Amino acid sequence: MSARKKARIVVLGGDGIGPEVTAEAVRVLEAIATRYGHEFAFESHLIGGAAIDATGSALPSQTISACGTADAVLLGAVGGPKWSDPNATVRPEQGLLALRKALNLFANLRPVSLHPALLDASPIKADILRGTDIVVVRELTGGIYFGEKHRTEDSASDLCTYTVNEIQRVTRVAGKLAQGRRRSIVSIDKANVLETSRLWRSTVEQVLSSEFPDVKLEHMLVDAAAMHLIRKPSSFDVMLTENMFGDILTDEASMLAGSLGMLPSASLGAATLGVYEPIHGSAPDIAGKGIANPYGTILSAAMLLEHSLGLSEEAEAIEKAVAECVSKRVFTADIAAGGAAVTTKQAGDCVVNRVLQ
Ligand code: IPM
Ligand code: MN
Predict the structure, then answer these.
(1) Which of 17, 53, 166, 196 has its CA 20 to 30 A from that of 344?
(2) 186/249 same-domain check
(3) Is residue 93 in some structural domain?
(4) Ligand 1, atom nearest to 265 Cα
């Protein structure tokens, strides 16, 4: 058992179902602290639409400074119809993007694995799904998301830029990860069209061949990758991709796991501080109903324990508990396929009880 650990965890519930799902993940972390004798202090702060309403900014300076000095950040989701005017100058999503940038969290890990009990929840045939176990490593602080933007009355532009250094550092994260898995990376780009992709391709190749010679590398164009993800998802181990391609491909990949609600993520930088959040959004259509799937956020809390606090055994305890609840068909509506569904809180209870057992 690991030594007693003290940690300060900032919780950013955000908007929509965000506060509901983070509440369950916090309860699970509290259960871990009880069972393993750790001391976790939780501190809530504002982000997104809730922060805009309270302060006028999607990422108040108080939130940035609290996150910057924390051991880890657990985040729900941002956005909602109330703030969705595309012409608004202040938008909830800016809070999330600015947080990633301010903390320099350049590598976003999005594991996609599927539980046998969820084979039927996916719109893809079970035969195709079997054996799927992917981690997408998405570059998170560069590319078209952060390039210069221009707008005139009759035109608009978003600049896509990457530096060699930005590509190298995220490639190293993917390389290390692949060495602990099946040693295979598919790097995604659009090198037949984009200059940034040509730089991406040559830089990835150079880093992996010189520093990770035991890792097999294949390049794949993003359009083909979108197709192969559905045709033969089990052929992928680590997928390495720039920011926007990673955003799009991980929503697609989530359908392999049965629901967007199942998938966790970790946003990491050079130090141990990370932001952990489910890959789903704020789901305003079901917000406040207590029926959202908390498993993606709870699994994000497991990633938090592993990557920011170095508590692998505890992380595994959460993963095992979630897997058991899913095996027992403790399903929220999104994965229940019309069958009996539990509430967000009941799904959280199931995990908490198993952690405490
Ligand atoms: C995600 C989200 C964000 C992104 C939005 C909310 C800015 O879709 O984390 O995938 O595009 O990165
Ligand atoms: Mn997204």
Answers:
(1) 53
(2) yes
(3) yes
(4) 9
Q: Which atom of ligand 1 is nearest to the CA of 100?
A: 12
CA of 7 to the centre of ligand 2 (A): 28
pTM of the model: 0.96
Q: Residue whose CA is closest, atom 4 of ligand 1?
A: 247
Rounded Cα gap, residues 21 and 338, in angstroms: 21
On whether residue 115 sits in a domain, the answer given is no
Residue 118 placed within a domain: no
Q: What is the largest CA-CA distance in the chain?
A: 62
- The CATH number that applies at residue 16 is 3.40.718.10
DSSP track, 108-141: EEEEEE--GGGGGGSSS-HHHHTT-EEEEEEE-S
| pLDDT single digits (tens) 211-231 | 999 999 999 999 999 999 999
In 226-249, which positions are buried (b, 16+ CB within 10 angstroms) versus exposed (e)? beebeeebeebbbbbbbbbbbbeb
Spatial distance between the Cα atoms of 344 and 3, rounded to a whole number of angstroms: 32
* Domain housing 267: 1-109+259-357
